[in-house]
């Protein structure tokens, strides 16, 4: 059994780095806060003999040897970066629970046969640099490092420059190596486990997600003298297509999702009709074929603007729906039975680094419920008992996986 | 008669400071470009004996003595700051034509009885710092310097800090002094003169304008796992009210204007349902009472969001409809007759520093047409013959005004 007080103390100490006044956290990828968070994490790792490596994407691997160093390592990873208005658990919990698992094994002087590597994946959130899960994506060979390096944040800083200025540009080339299995513990970030009164979700797969950037263009002109009839105001183009987008996604039923997270005008000036309205479109569905159809239909609608406007669609990212390894699912299930936990299978609505890892080797995920299903919000909250349950399931899944 | 080549050369040299690749200009208030533009202007002023003063808002006064220094000065002013995607004439033309007028008088060794002060008003555009016309507004006592000092640009820099860093914090306190009259030459920034094939507009007044900031609030949450039915997505609140806003303003007829120039989400993250959608609202009408009614009705609509959302309305600025001095209108009219110009009376759709000056003393404005009525756009264009006509009308209005 893991130590509750220690796990909670890891979490609350980490939450202080980038803490917001309302209890949330702003520790975005490749910032000074991100660097400080990792530094703190490393002091904890060093205390029980972890040995760190950093790769060229900023992914951080901390290795704990088992009894047989020729065996493939088990990866236990998640991320320490947060959304700009993030909480204290998304990603962080997975990393710090993995740390607590290693502390527990260390307390008990229990050595596994396999080495374990705790991984802190870089830029999982995708809020500062598009796309999400870019550290694990490059690791898995699904994203190109040279593309990600060029990705710019809203201030025009590139991933590569931020990597260097935050001291996270590791010497090791970011590339996949063989692993025995990969386990990730995460908060659900949705309302299902809470509604079903379960303390553990055994994640069977992750829904597909597509990201686009839509640019609606009109003509910039003066807000005062220009008659309404002579304007090409792209806000009116936005107004025309918004209901169509939401209605179309609703046609695809309860499992379909659409989010417009970024929305801006260019130029951005009170007394100027903008030239462009630019917005992000995040479309999701657990069934890949349905997501494909839905995306196609929604993009057609984005192109159906009145003829005085121009519409431009750019694909930013595609993360196909995936299913996790049956053996991992089974092991997690066995751990919940062993611990007598109230568990259920669940499909993840959020993307995770495990999506990319699942393309490389046996991968599994464990969820715990979060309050009101709210995440990517400073109010994000998880009950301590669930935090403890999740960490224990992680511990026993690791043991079961490596013992047989 | 003024010298065409010299006027055009002033304009094209000034356009190089902050020049954009597509021919437009980005020389926003209190930037390094703004400072460089004023420096260039001052070298031209010094060459013919102009003496400069700078006040605590960054308004720049350049005095040219007449034959009687006890007489009140005539002000001829406009602004050198531009929109982020601005052209080469808005404001700039009025300042440089006034300069050309003084050069012409200098060439002819003609001294007026009254002193003349060319004024470069600070932050006229209102795009970097809200509101517009803030230099002249504080000068006229209609805006408070301490409020404007606190105004922040989109990067969080205050007016006061920008004033200092751009070296425009003058030692003289910004406050009104008596003047004999004030004349401003400007491009129309609308389509009327062109449509009516007139080369001069005799401006009889300026329409009223109200600026608001509307904040629609929902609840930030994760774009993936959160079911659509559980969301409080403020983009949907925006979608609900946008058509109502445009429809309502259309009910007020052809002279009514509404512009949403700034539009943004907070937080701004692709995979996060935003907490807030914030937008600016610029409402205008030439009849003050109509503008008042229209604003009231539009703001009510902004408050009529579905009950899961919150709506907050903040008044940013009110600039009431004004009428210019009849004597100034008459003098400008006489100048156009003297020069045999094709002129018509016109109401300005744009705000100008003359709005605030008209509350202090006799004030008049002259317009010239601009191509397709387009302004606040890098494509802004004015035919050289119109630039010359306007400057000549300014010259002769000045002479007529001071000679009688
Ligand atoms: N866990 C998490 O918030 N990941 C970000 C990727 C996504 O948008 O789902
Ligand atoms: N001339 C001009 O563009 N002034 C800005 C003030 C306004 O918004 O009308």
Automatic annotation (TrEMBL), chains A, B:
Keywords: Hydrolase. The keyword Hydrolase applies. Residues 205-304 form the Peptidase M20 dimerisation domain. The keyword Hydrolase applies. It holds the Pfam family M20_dimer. It comes from the Bacteria. InterPro entries: Amidase_Cbmase, Bact_exopeptidase_dim_dom, Peptidase_M20, Peptidase_M20_dimer. Belongs to the peptidase M20 family. This is M20 family metallo-hydrolase.
């Amino acid at each position: 059994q893991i130590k509750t007080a220690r796990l909670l103390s890891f979490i609350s100490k980490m939450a202080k780095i980038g803490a917001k006044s309302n209890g949330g956290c702003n520790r975005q990828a490749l910032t000074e806060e991100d660097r400080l968070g990792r530094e703190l994490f490393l002091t904890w790792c060093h205390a029980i003999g972890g040995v760190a490596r950093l790769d060229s994407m900023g992914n951080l691997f901390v290795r704990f040897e088992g009894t047989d160093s020729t065996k493939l390592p088990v990866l236990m990873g998640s991320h320490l970066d947060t959304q700009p208005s993030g909480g204290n658990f998304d990603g962080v919990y997975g990393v710090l629970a993995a740390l607590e698992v290693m502390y527990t094994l260390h307390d008990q002087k229990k050595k596994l046969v396999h080495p374990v590597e705790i991984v802190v994946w870089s830029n999982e959130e995708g809020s500062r640099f598009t796309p999400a899960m870019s550290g694990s994506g490059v690791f898995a060979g699904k994203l190109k490092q040279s593309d990600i390096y060029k990705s710019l944040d809203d201030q025009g800083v590139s991933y590569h420059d931020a990597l260097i200025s935050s001291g996270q540009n590791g010497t090791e080339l970011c590339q996949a190596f063989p692993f025995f299995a990969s386990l990730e513990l995460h908060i659900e970030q949705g309302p299902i486990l809470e509604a079903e009164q379960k303390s553990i979700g055994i994640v069977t797969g992750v829904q597909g997600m597509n990201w686009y950037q839509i640019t609606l263009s009109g003509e910039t002109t003066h807000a005062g003298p220009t008659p309404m009839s002579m304007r090409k105001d792209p806000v009116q183009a936005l107004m025309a297509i918004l209901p169509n987008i939401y209605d179309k996604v609703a046609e695809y039923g309860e499992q379909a999702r659409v989010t417009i997270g970024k929305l801006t005008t260019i130029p951005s000036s009170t007394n100027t009709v903008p030239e462009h309205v630019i917005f992000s479109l995040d479309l999701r569905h657990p069934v890949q074929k349905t997501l494909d159809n839905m995306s196609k239909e929604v993009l057609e609608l984005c192109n159906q603007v009145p003829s005085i406007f121009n519409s431009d669609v750019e694909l930013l990212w595609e993360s196909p729906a995936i299913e996790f390894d049956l053996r991992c699912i089974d092991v997690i299930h066995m751990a919940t039975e062993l611990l007598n936990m109230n568990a259920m299978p669940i499909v993840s609505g959020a993307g995770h680094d495990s999506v990319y890892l699942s393309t490389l080797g046996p991968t599994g995920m464990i969820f715990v419920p979060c309050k009101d299903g709210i995440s990517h919000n400073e109010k994000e909250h998880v009950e301590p008992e669930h935090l403890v349950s999740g960490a224990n399931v992680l511990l026993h899944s690791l043991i079961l996986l490596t013992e047989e």
